[in-house]
Every structure is written in structure tokens, then in C-alpha cells.
Amino acid sequence: MSEITLTSENFDEKVLKADKPVLVDFWAVWCGPCKMMAPIVSEIAEENADKMYVGKLNVDDAEDIAARYGINSIPCFILFENGQEKGRTVGVQDKARLLASVNA
């Protein structure tokens, strides 16, 4: 399964009410480091489809959600489980470090 496109309209349903953990990639089109992370995020989505969802939230299109979670730097990755934040990391990193840093 590929990444889920998250919006202000579907965030609560797709993330906070999800039946599995959700790794959310807070990104923007103009962000070079976000573009560098995109293939890694896609790999995580494909390889972990059985145990988690992976969503991408464009912070320019969903400023309200970015503000709700205090996103000041991107890329920012937050793992949500049962509607609660379980781990967070910011910046470019390899797949293993990203998964470890959000406790996925």
C-alpha cells in the first residue's frame, strides 16, 4: 500500500481514529530535504503495510494541522498510535534511523 494523502479534512479520521499506527510525513513541495526523504517514506509504506499506515501531509495545504502539532521544521515525522503521538523526528535520515527514532 502506498502513502495516504492527508488533508485538514481527513486527518482526524485517517490518523487519530486509525486501527493501526500511522507514520505522518509533514512536508512541502518546495522543501529539498522533503524530496530527498520521499523515496524512503515510500519504501516504509510498502514494506510495513501490514503493521502501519504512512501518510503525507503538505504543511502548506494544511497549516491548521501543522500548527496543531507545532511543526516548525520539515521534514518532520510523527508516529501516531491510538490517536496519540508516540514518537517524533525532524530532518533527513536513513530508513533504519527514521523507524528507530519514531519507535516504529
Blueprint of the fold:
Elements: E1 4-6, H1 11-16, E2 22-27, H2 32-47, E3 53-58, H3 63-68, E4 76-81, E5 84-90, H4 95-101
Parallel strand pairs: 1-3, 2-3
Antiparallel strand pairs: 2-4, 4-5
Any low-confidence stretches, pLDDT <50, length ≥5?
A: none
CATH third-level topology: Glutaredoxin
Tally of DSSP β-strands: 5
Order of H and E elements: EHEHEHEEH
Note down, in words, how this protein is organized:
The chain is of the alpha/beta class. The chain has a single domain (4-90), classed as Glutaredoxin, CATH 3.40.30.10. Helix content is 34%, strand content 27%. It has helices at residues 11-16, 32-47, 63-68, 95-101, and strands spanning 4-6, 22-27, 53-58, 76-81, 84-90. The chain has a five-stranded mixed sheet with strand order 1-3-2-4-5. β4 (76-81) and β5 (84-90) form a beta hairpin. The two termini are 17 Å apart. The model has no long low-confidence stretch (mean pLDDT 95).
